[in-house]
Specification:
The chain has 441 residues and is α+β, with helices and mostly antiparallel strands. It contains ten helices and twelve strands. The strands form three sheets. A five-stranded antiparallel β-sheet has the order 2-1-5-4-3.
Length: 441
């Protein structure tokens, strides 16, 4: 847009200079000047003289001193065939060279020192042996003034051309200010088909993403409040029942205590998840990088969790790589990521099925990567759309949110893998649900 505007300015200036030069050329042309001067005043004077008594010298002088005395640059003389002046603009001039007294004679001349100073003289026969001899002398206009007008005109054309763009930039600036003040529903106006429209579209896209993030944040806080309030209400309710001895036996009281303990552990786990999530999304987080053998990390986690799966009528299997797989990362965070995946499988796998851990090594674009995958058979049907939502924070398949869980487990996994420069995805393969993440070695 700037280039186009500059081009328009150059074109406007060029056109103005061409017009100016053309005007000067016409004005400096002798034929143009003589004809123009003749048409301006000479024709009218000759008409008045031919209708007058040319032998009445006082009447002729009165005509020249009156109606035609205001013609700037002109001198008029009525002469006879000998060149004797009978009436004239300059009373001190008594005769004109007889060589100049020729009917229809017109001459043009420029000053030898200044081309802008020019003289036009001519002679026309009137009647009764009398002629009109005239002289026009003028100093031409200064080119500087014309150039100034040309420049001003060009600048006006340039400003008119870019005014719409300047106004549009101002509107975009106003929109940015409104958005910056917190109105994420506002959008910058879309106009033209150039870089400014691209800028406005980018601003609108950014605002739309911020609006979505703001909505998620609002939902996040609402869901946290719900998840904390529900078990806390249960705990307080059972504590009140125990205080008022609203139980029939010691066994029933112990049941209440167990519920309180379970809910308390859930709150502890949930708060740890919230803290972990907040820490992972903070810009101040520092990872403790070290070289890790992926097979060994997976083996330790498998041994720690195998018995827990057996208690839920699930079989946990481990398939390691035939060669060592070294990765560079934070061992605590990667262990947390794997544990969250295992915990998710433990809660949502179909009983009497196999949950399988697999470690492998792959080369992608000439770069080696360590691959971790976990497969399980869900106890409830899962659609592809739901799989894409698993990594959203606070996502729970049960919309009533009655199941115990913070809804941050897989979101934490995603953030951990992202911090390590890796990627994670979930997908279905026949009846199995598979989670796979990739870490650079």
């Amino acid at each position: 847009m700037v280039i186009i505007s500059l081009i328009s300015l150059v074109i406007s200036l060029t056109a103005a200079i061409m017009i100016k030069n053309q005007g000067i050329g016409l004005y400096s042309n002798s034929t143009y000047r003589i004809n123009n001067i003749y048409s301006e005043s000479i024709t009218g004077l000759e008409k008045d003289l031919n209708s007058s008594n040319l032998s009445n010298y006082p009447e002729l002088q009165q005509l020249l001193d009156g109606k035609y005395s205001f013609k700037v640059g002109y001198s008029f003389y009525v002469v006879d065939t000998t060149g004797t002046v009978v009436a004239g603009s300059n009373k001190g001039l008594l005769a004109i060279d007889m060589n100049e007294i020729i009917d229809g004679k017109k001459e043009y001349s420029n000053s030898q020192t200044d081309n802008n100073v020019f003289k036009i003289s001519g002679c026309d026969y009137l009647k009764d042996g009398y002629f009109l001899y005239y002289v026009f002398l003028r100093y031409g206009q200064d080119d500087t003034g014309m150039l100034v007008y040309a420049l001003i005109g060009s600048l006006i054309c340039f400003l008119l051309f870019i005014w719409g763009r300047i106004s549009y930039i101002s509107k975009i600036k106003t929109s940015v200010a409104i958005i910056a003040e917190g109105d994420l529903t506002h959008r910058a106006p879309l106009k033209y088909r150039n870089e400014l429209r691209d800028l406005a579209e980018d601003i609108n896209f950014m605002t739309s993403e911020l609006e979505k993030e703001d909505q998620k944040r609002s939902e996040f806080m609402t869901n946290i409040s719900h998840d904390i309030r529900t078990p806390l209400t249960t705990i307080l309710g059972y504590i009140e029942m125990i205080k008022k001895e609203k139980y029939d036996s010691k066994e029933e009281m112990n049941k209440y205590i167990n519920i309180i303990e379970r809910k308390g552990l859930f709150l502890t786990t949930m708060m740890e998840d919230f803290f972990q999530y907040s820490k992972l999304t903070s810009k101040d987080i520092v990872l403790n990088y070290e070289n890790l053998e992926f097979n060994e990390l997976a083996r330790q986690l498998f041994e720690d969790e195998e018995s827990g799966f057996e208690e839920r009528s699930l079989k946990l299997e481990l398939e390691l790589s035939n060669e060592p797989v070294y990765i560079y990362g934070d061992s605590d965070l990667l262990a947390r990521a794997v544990n969250n995946l295992l915990s998710n499988s433990l809660k949502y796998s179909k009983p009497n099925t196999v949950v399988k851990i697999k470690i492998s090594k792959e080369k992608l674009n000439n770069v080696n990567y360590g691959i971790f995958s976990l497969s399980n058979v869900p106890k409830e049907p899962i659609s592809e759309a739901e799989v894409d939502s698993f990594f959203e924070r606070l996502y729970k398949k049960d919309q009533s949110r009655s199941e115990e869980g913070s809804g941050l487990g897989l979101s934490i996994v995603k953030d951990i893998i992202k911090l390590h420069g890796g990627t994670i995805k979930g997908y279905k393969e026949k009846e199995e649900l598979i989670f796979k993440f990739i870490i650079g070695v």
